[in-house]
Fold this protein.
Amino acid sequence: MSGLAPKLVSSQGNEIVFTGDFAPTETGFWFSNELNTFLHAAGTVCLNFEGAVTRQPIRSDKTGAALNLSTDLLPTFSEALLLAGLNNNHTMDFGSEGLSETMEFFRLNNISCFGAGKDRREALQPLIVNLGSKRVGVIGFCMPDLELVFANEQGAGVVAPFGQWNYVKKLKQMVDHLIVTCHGGIEFIDQPAPSIVRLFRKFIESGADAVIGHHPHVPQGWESYRGGRIFYSLGNFVFNHPYHSKFRNTDMGYLVRCRFGMGIDYDVIPVKRAGTTIEARPDLAAQLPGLRLHEGGIDHSEWRKQCFEWLFPSWSPTSSISIGEGQTDKQPPAGNKIRRLGKSIVRKMRHIFLLLSLPVYRDIVIGAALYGWKRLWKN
């Protein structure tokens, strides 16, 4: 199995703190005193690092946002061992050159990364973190999307999770505890897609002790499953893209602190962005479904409702996803109408292809259809 030769790192203490999506594209963000104290006390912090660090930002050929990140916040973690997960859809925003420059930045700053690489072997290479007498494995995968670049024998990129079950089983034999991080799901919906639930549970069945999910940009809660723990989406940690402001709960997420001993003890710390300050907000746990345990399984009825709102926002005046027209939307800049029309057509075709080709988007169509049928039947 390629990739099984791990990167070995050591840290003080017996814990790792996992964060949500980290992508500060501007300077000027800081942590509240309480959160700053918490992060300083953590022995190891693992970021979902969504973007690149490059001085020559030549973006790849993609229609979505390309994120070149500010590193101003990284010194905050100076007393902790810092890990960076690169298994996400923004790692290759500036091509293989951008990835190479990012990984070199990490090397120079003693940040250990995983989840992407110059070829498939490096992208599959796990981290093993020595925490005293315990060895903790961390590995990262990324769900397919049309604009993702997947690593192969000669080319840089990320690795999809499908067919990796034996790899996970072999890795578990090398460590005391195994954490799988996986990037995937539907953005801005606070319930996990059925295909994501099946996939993440399969990781537990294959030997993972916990699964950490990213990508939806809103928290999606967690569940216990067969002795393991699944955190479906940690939401946003530091992610200030203007587009997100249209959607509810994109200004919040949660941290997961894993304490390793005979087993794993988990603490969940809700966080929220207030202007340019990221605050610890334990009071939020009682307010949002995405910040609580899924007791008795996943609420698929709420999932179907949000699928309908995601596909047909104009038919959903009380949408639980969008904040509402006019509150944060900005008018598109003036420009070449033909160019804007062309981009619009490309986006529509891309969405149609996604809906037909990828399991998580098929979930959206099925969920919306079931909710629409139920709504029609009631009327």
Summary: The chain has two domains: 7-298, 301-378. Residues 337-357 form the longest helix (21 residues). The helical segments are 33-41, 95-108, 120-123, 165-172, 194-205, 300-311, 337-357, 359-378. The two ends are 56 Å apart (CA to CA).
